[in-house]
Design a protein that fits this description.
Blueprint lengths: L1 H13 L19 H4 L16 H15 L11
Length: 79
């Protein structure tokens, strides 16, 4: 329960009000389960999309931001 509370708080820091644009990407299959999704904030639940591959999620995310006219900044960190 504490972990879900922290996740919900973090989501609220990404998207603070209706005029904000942001992405929240969970790279953990547990977030696809009904049990976990039902504990996420009610405002985000209708917008959850589940993908089997990160590359598809990334592509759809980029398409979304380009359609909004938002400036997209990509950071690539190499070790």
């Amino acid at each position: 329960m504490e972990a879900i509370k922290a996740v919900n708080q973090a989501m609220g820091r990404v998207i603070r009000h209706i005029g904000d644009w942001g992405s929240i990407i969970f790279c953990d299959e547990r977030y696809a389960s009904f049990n976990i999704k039902s504990q996420l904030s009610a405002w985000i639940q209708p917008h959850i999309k589940i993908y089997d591959q990160f590359s598809i999620a990334y592509r759809e995310n980029m398409k979304f931001f380009k359609s909004t006219g938002a400036i997209v900044i990509i950071y690539i960190i190499l070790k």
